[in-house]
Design a protein that fits this description.
77% helix; 1 helix; mainly alpha
């Protein structure tokens, strides 16, 4: 059985698009969380 990159099933493309979208959301969420963490650390240092 050979591995095909694209499936004949049209739902496969929608699944891949959903996966890509969820990964992108995850990456953005992680970046935002890091910025919030850095901001909190900076604020804690300023307030002693």
């Amino acid at each position: 059985m050979g591995n095909k990159k694209k499936s004949a099933c049209p739902e496969h493309g929608a699944d891949e698009e959903l996966i890509d979208t969820l990964i992108a959301i995850s990456v953005v969420a992680k970046k935002l969380a890091n910025k919030v963490r850095q901001s909190n650390e900076r604020r804690e240092k300023e307030n002693g």
